[in-house]
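Example record for the data management plan.
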Amino acid sequence: MGGCGTTAKLSGDSKPQAGDAVVFKSSAIAYNEGKVEKVEGGKYEIRSGSNIAKVDAADVYAVPKAGAKSEVKTGDFVVGFAREIYWAGGEVKNVTADLVEIEPVSGAKLNVAHDKVIKVSPTAIAHIKQSIEAKAFEDLGKTKKPVLPKNWKPKKGDKVAAQWSFGSWHLAIIKNVNPNNIDIDWQNGWNDGTVASDKVAAYPTAENAMPKVNDYVIVKPQSDTAEWKFATVTAINGQEAEVKFADGKTQKVRNTDFIGLV
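Corresponding structural encoding:
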């Protein structure tokens, strides 16, 4: 067993007790291995590495017995061993007699033995599914190009939104316009950079054209140092649009608050 080096003495339906090896939820899609130190009032105190985590009982799972066969099938959402003491939530893509192939939110597939897979609660499954859907939503947004105002040409000193190499959009000031790229001053504290000309968008103004329902947009944050967020348009009412973000939350915005993507 990676990490703790112990094997659970429990059946899959038994509740872990003090001294047992467990896997516990540390975020929507990340899980850690640890050892139960204390159980009290529906809460577990679990030592993981040098840290003590306090976790709800619903988010604690016994480490599978060595050699155990999982009952998962393609399309299930599960937690699988990734490395050291870390486990990852993802979707089962294939099951063979010896291995379970899991695609976590990161997209880097895991091929793990059956005793390195845990079936989790419906609530945990919902969190994994939502995280996978949110990543797909943002990945699609990152492939799109900004809608530019008619006859707009970038020039030195313009305030713009620019796309970073990892696909996110941030506020910047143009330092220089070159034949094939643009030198910019990121406004979030990063060092100055150079980006391709098609990754720079005019800062939104009242003259911006309104998008259509289902169009992708990037929405201006409240702080100049924060990342612009991908969203899709769910409704239009005059010069106001309702947009939905990757996490499902909605917001009403005006045409000065977003940049369209195609």
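Summary line stored alongside the record: The two ends are 48 Å apart (CA to CA).
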